[in-house]
Every structure is written in structure tokens, then in C-alpha cells.
Amino acid sequence: MDGSCPLFLSNFGEQNGSERSVGYLVQKLPLYRPSPDTSDLGYHTLDNSACRSSSSTSIVAIPIKHQQQLQQQKSLGHLDDDLLLNIFSWLTTRERCTIAQTCRRLREIAWHPSLWQDIEVHHPQCLTIALNSIARHGYHSRVRRLVLNGANGHPGVLASLPFPRLTILALRHVRHVNDDTIAAILDNCMHLRELDLTGCTTVTRAYTHGAASQLQSLDLSDCHGVDDAGLALTLSRMPHLACLYLRRCARITDASLVAITSYCGVLRQLSVSDCARVTDFGVRELAARLGPSLRYLSVGKCDRVSDAGLLVVARHCYKLRYLNARGCEALSDSAVLALARGCPRMRAFDLGKCDIGDATLEALSTGCPNLKKLSIRGCERVTDIGLEALAYYVRGLRQLNIGDCPRVTILGYRAVKRYCRRCVIEHTNPGFSS
């Protein structure tokens, strides 16, 4: 094969470029066929009913001419271009590149511009080769979503290429990503709306030297180099940010939460879970200044967050839909009672390992009637009484975790099964039925 097809995979170079036999592709494609019990995803099965074996034991002789016709019907090369495009649109980037190396016609279909708006490159693929191949075909101007997950290589090529239509970029656990690379990407990709830098440990900020960024979602989870100063510099250029995730960024403190309130007035989702230096002071400042704009808040495993901080959340964030306070052992019934009264739109609540009891469940049953997900894993004071009250009034519950709740018995479990018929119950008691 000539050099027009990219080598996304390390073993592609070992494959022969001549046209493959039809049987190889026919054997591969059924892997992407929907199972009989799933809905039709829009692509075809390529099976020919005339070729299926009969349940009868009799043997039917098929003339050679008809066998040749049936063999041609199995060939991908005889399918219509539109049908092939429909099939290829459901394949991953890796799968399209694999099929592209089988024959010239399929290579042309696999590299159709309409198929290269959404690209994913995963470990152990080389992102340098992948990006160079995309640039060689000129498709960098068409890409709208680009995901590089743990891939090898240097992302400098990405920083040097213009991506005028790119709106979603994920650089998860990609090595050699630094502040200069991120700055170049933000300067080149003017229409970028979502940026995921999860696991990029050498990144300390995401700063653009040009005009203010249009970014609406930023994920800096596991970016251990991010501190208060770097985050403040980042947020100063992102006035439209609505979603910010700082999971396990251990160096940030309450100063970061104050900076968030100063620069991100329209923030709707925030996660600072596993940020041990965040305290009630930061939570109070955040809730008091952002108030009803917050819909999603996670302070899970923030040991220094207690009733004092979440009482302010209950007072000001009345449109809150999701709250994760898992592992906040200083949280008690009084704060949850206030949250149940002040946040009636709550849909999901994680109170695992908090110091709560039946009073919390009774308050949620009346204050949050639209609750869908609840975790009380490890809450040792919860009993069957509170669980039955919750199940009776919140019958739309879909997911419940009662693992490691020693005072919950089979009676509470059966009450949930009786009133919340569509609820999935997670538990650790071997005596409960599945």
C-alpha cells in the first residue's frame, strides 16, 4: 500500500497492503452488529438469509455459478457507498484505520471527510503519527471532537495545527503536556468549549495569551501541579466557565474557591472532592456568592467540611440538583435537614460515611420528593424505620446504596423493593435477595 493511509497502530506496518480476501472482512463485521434484544442502531447486518444454514439435516447442492453470486453478495466491495459510510460511522477510529488497510476501495471510504469529525486515539497508539496523518489529509480543519487518552508521543503537533472547528478536546493522561502546550492549543482553537486535562501531572495552569477563552467546561482532575495561583490565573481568562472539576488537586485551598466566585459568576458545576485543604470557609464563600447558579457540588472526602459550610449551601443554593458529601464525617442530621428543606430540587445525594440517622431519611422523604439516587453507605445509625419512610414517599427512587449499614435488616430492604419497584439496591448483606 502507498503511504496515504496512516499508521495509527504499531503493528499496521506488518500488514500486507494488497487487497484482502472477502471472507476476512465478513468475519470481522458481525462484531459490530447489534444483539437481537437491543434497538436498531441504524446500521445493517450484512447477513444474507439465503446463505444461512438450514435446521434440516438434508444437504442441498448449490451450483458453482450461484456460489459465486453469493460470494459477491458477501463482499463489502459490492455495497453501496452510502451504506458503507453508514457502517463505518459506527466504528471507532482504530477500527476504521484497520479496515482502511484491507483494500483500496475501503481505504477511500474509511478516509471520507464526514467520518473524521470525531477522533479518538488511545494507549498504546502514537498520537504524533495520528496527528500527522490527519494533517496530511487536511482533516484537522474538520475535527470537532478529539480524544487522546494515554497515547504515546508528543502533543506538540497538536499545538501547531489550527483546529478551527474543534469544540471538545480531551488530553487524558498524556505525557509531555505542559503549560506552553495548553496555551498554544487555547490560542489556536478559538471555538473550544470543553477541555479535559485529567491526569496531566505537569500542567499547572490553562492560560491563553490571546482574547478571553470561550471555554465552558474544564477538567483538571489529578493535575497535581495545580495550586491556588495557577488556578486563579486560569480562571481569569475564562469568564464563561460553567463546569469545573478539580478532583484530587491536593494543593488547592479555600483561596481557590474565592477565586472561582470572583471570575466564574455563571458556574453551575463544581467538584473539589478529595481536596483535603478545602474547609467550611471556602464552601461558605462559594455558596454565598454563587447561590442559585450552582446545580452540582461535590465536596466528597473533604474532611474539614462540616455542618457549618453546608448550612450556607442550604440557605443560598436552592436550585442544587446534586450534592456529594461522601466521607464528610463531621456532617450530621442538622445540616441534611436544612438541605432537604432548602434544596427541594435535589435529584442525587451521596451521604456515605456521614454521621446521619433516620431523621435525615425522613426529611428527604418530605423535602426532596423527586430524589432519584441516594447513597447512605456506611451510615451506621440508619435503621429500617427511616428507610421505610423514604421508600414510601419517594417512590421514584432509582438507585440506593445501603452497603455497610449494620442496622438495616431484610425488613427495610423489602420495604424499598415494595414501594420503589424500579430501584436498583446496592448492599453488602448476603442475607438480602438479589
Secondary structure category: alpha/beta
CATH architectural label of the largest domain = Alpha-Beta Horseshoe
Q: Enumerate the strands of the largest sheet in spatial order, edge to edge or round the barrel.
A: 1-2-3-4-5-6-7-8-9-10-11-12-13
The end-to-end distance, rounded to whole angstroms, is 55 Å
Tell me, what is the CATH class of the largest domain?
Answer: Alpha Beta
Question: Treating each run of at least 4 consecutive H or I residues as one helix, how many helices?
Answer: 16
Determine the mean pLDDT. 82
Report the portion of residues in β strands: 5-15%
Secondary-structure element pattern, one letter each: HHHHHEHEHEHEEHEHEHEHEHEHEHEHE
Radius of gyration: 27 Å
**Biggest β-sheet strands, sense, barrel:** 13 strands, parallel
The total number of structural domains is 3
Shape: globular
**Quick one: CATH superfamily of the largest domain?**
Ribonuclease Inhibitor
CATH topology of the largest domain: Leucine-rich repeat, LRR (right-handed beta-alpha superhelix)
Number of strands: 13
Oligomer: single chain
* pLDDT < 50 runs, ≥5 residues: 1-62
Instruction: Name the helicity range.
Output: 25-40%
